[in-house]
Amino acid sequence: MAVAAFNTFDALSAWGKTLPAWQRCLLVRLLEAAELSQDAVDEVFAEYLLDQGLACTKYG
Q1: Are 8 and 45 in contact (CB under 8 A)?
Q2: Under 8 Å CB-to-CB from 17, ≥6 apart: which residues?
Q3: Chain center to CA of 28
Q4: How far apart are the C-alpha atoms of 32 and 5, rounded to whole Å?
Q5: What is the DSSP string of 25-57?
Q6: For residues 24 and 14, is the Cβ–Cβ distance under 8 A?
Q7: Rounded to whole angstroms, how far apart are CA atoms 57 and 54?
């Protein structure tokens, strides 16, 4: 059974739709103005995996 790949932008979009209009506006402005390095994206994704109980640990 194939597992759908996680898409950060789809998740962010879905979450943004749950926010009040002023918070959506703020989120859009922050996303338009900010640029994240790949290291920052990787760090946030690692935190997300930990938060969701999905982080893998190395054996031994």
Answers
A1: yes
A2: 24
A3: 14
A4: 25
A5: HHHHHHHHH----HHHHHHHHHHHHHHTT----
A6: no
A7: 10
- How many angstroms separate the Cα of 22 from the Cα of each of 8, 16, 31, 37? 22, 11, 14, 26
What does the chain come to in residues? Answer: 60
Inter-residue contact 46 to 55 (CB < 8 Å):
yes
Q: Take residue 60 and report the two structure tokens written for it.
A: 């031994």
From first to last of its 60 residues, the chain has per-residue pLDDT tens of 677 788 888 888 888 889 899 888 887 887 787 777 888 878 878 888 888 888 876 654
